[in-house]
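Workshop exercise sheet. Pairs work together: one partner reads the sequence aloud, the other fills in the structure field after running the prediction. Swap roles for the next sheet.
Pair: D.N. / O.F.
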Amino acid sequence: MDREQREVVCRAAQKVFNQGLLSGQSSFAPGLNIWSPAAATELFHRFVENWDGSSDEFMVKLERQIATGSDEAIVLAAELLYLNVMPLSPATVGVERKFEIINTVLSWASRAVTVPEDLAAAASPGYMKGGQAFLNYRWAQFAFLIRLTGLLVTLPQGEREDALRDPWTFRKLAESVLADHDGKFRARAQYHVLIFLIFPDVFVPVSVERNKKLIRDAFVDRIAKPSDDIDRDIYGIRCQIEQETGAFSFYDEPWLSRWQPPAPPRSQKGWLVRGANVDGTNAISLWLGGGYCSISFKDLGEIPGGASRQEIKGVVDAALPDAKQGAKDAAAGQLWRFLSYFQLGDLVATVDGDAVYVGTIAGDAYYDDSAGRHLARRRAVEWNPQPLSRKNLPEETQAKLKTAMTIAELTTVMAELATDAGLGDEVTDAVLVQDETRTLVIPQVTQELADRLLIPLTWFQETADLLASKRQLILYGPPGTGKTFLATRLSEALAGPDRTSLVQFHPSYGYEDFIQGFRPRQGDGGTIGFDLVDGPLLKAVEAAVQEPDKPFVLVIDEINRANLAKVFGELYFLLEYRNHEITLQYSPDEPFKLPKNVFIIGTMNTVDRSVALVDAAMRRRFAFRCLAPDRAPVDGLLRRWLTREKLPDIPALLLDEVNRRLNDPDRAVGPSYLMTPDAGTRRGLERIWITEILPLLEDQLYGKVDSVEQEYGLTVLLSAIQRELP
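Structure field:
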């Protein structure tokens, strides 16, 4: 951390915050009184009380909540967001993005307001890598700043001045409004950052309480006796060291390496360890009282912690010679996880009826049979003794807790679980980034996209909302109605090109192609081997798990050309029950689930096979959206495109006449055949008609008309519409 950058940021923060609280005046709009009970109360009503739990992005929701408010409330919101994003380094939030956020909010005011040059310069560098906690809970941090501002501006002037002079009084006031609307404490990082910004000579530039504890414990010999107040302890340590060495930073050497632990061999994980029925005994009260968790297998002797999987397997095989191999493998895997794979700092949960207890692994595996061999294999755990209610947890978490396994991984739901249990500061970025309980952010479809594609925005947004609700959608219609084109454009609008993939089904496509199957490979010496290869669905799932708050879309073109029951297999179940886990036929030992952020859009040509032939199971799991030449949004699309391209309307008139004569919505001709500049020239239109449209009609009308040319030829139709080609 650069000390000069921190000092610049702190001075700017104090100018905005202190000046606002003492004078009421805005730093962005001099003369505007925004640090007032009226503005703070309005912001509280609009944002905190009107909490928006939708899947929209933070700025989209914020605009809905405050954009129609008073100038005072809007500018106050911008200054509080300035305090929120200003300390972040470009590695967390880029400079352009910082000012995009602030200037967007200021644009909602009725007057022109800009960030003054000195404050803009201070916000540019930043000093703090915020991490996932800071990014995930921006709404909670903003709400905390609003609550604190609302409290401070209602204090008498003298008490406000005292709070800005006394760091401990200020901290106490900040702590009093730290709880979110639901009683949780998601804004702790913002709280730690703010007290440092306002009092940098007292508090340290640390946003994670766990790191503060590490600093205090590493230098505890510098104070007479540690207390329950970590900030006061660190302040005492800091004063003692500064007397000896002068100004210093805990982030500089030789101080940093004394408190910062070495990186663990792998990233943090979360685990479920069952203890409510250990050989007929409910061990959880013993775990909580003794500060440990345990795993039984009392028929086995002592196995040292850190033993390899192969060593543990050998012990199990010798002790249970008559057990089935599958049971022995499962036992060895459970023991290996507990004895060797768990590591210091991992998070752990256990369930006792409706009560869910959460803690942190605090030591290596050890053996203690004082309470019986069924409780002998132990791990030290720092438990939070206050349980959570299982029925109040997110659906994803409840589903994970249903597993019958003695030990199961909970990493993807552990961030919310630990935060609810008051252990949010123990959660690392590695767990936060996998948190599937986070609200899935689905961007709004923009007017710019609708205008570019000449499709009504209402249709696009309705389709996006339908996909968000059902998670599986099929666009169906006759050829040329833009099904694949619109599916890919909609996918890219919602998920971006990098999170959109496309696969085309065909009659020989199967489960092994789509989900997972063995594929031959050339081995050494010309031999042939087989590898288990993931199909496009599993590849999409693997990517989606890494970013659970962002949508991933798999577009399946011509979905009805394959045997859907054969292709989807057991996935039929997961399409409807996203929070459940199953095992795949080629990976029976690994639980699999379809993440809520994986969406599927299929396209279905009604000429190839009727929609009516799709079985009831598939119909129930997919929403269907029709694209037909005589209905919105396709109706009139060709005419709109010709107008925009300044081309004659003859192609639109011809298309209308063709479809009038066909009189069959499932066999109508779509506009995309004619949405090309070639359709604006005589030669181009003749070529399209002879090589594309007439062959299509001949195939569709085989055996139904004597001569397609006589009824649908270009000359015949031009005569019918009373037009001539240029």
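Discussion prompt: The CA atoms of residues 638 and 671 lie 6 Å apart. What would you look at next?
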